[in-house]
Amino acid sequence: MPDNPQALPGQVFALPGQRLIALEGRDAAVFAQAQFMNDVKALADGHWQWSGWLTPKGRVVALFALLRLSDQQIWLAVPDADAGALAQALKRFVFRSKVAIELREDRVIEGRFGAPEQAAGASIAGSAEDSLEIDMSGDGGARALRIVPVAQAAAADAALAALWAQADLRHGLPRLPAAQAEQWTPQQLSLDRLRAYSVKKGCYPGQEIVARTHFLGKAKRGLALYRSEGELEAGAKALAGEDALGEIVAVAAPWALAVIGLDRAPTPARAGAAQLQPQALSAGLER
Question: Which one, of 101, 96, 111, lies nearest residue 32 by Cα?
Answer without folding.
Answer: 101
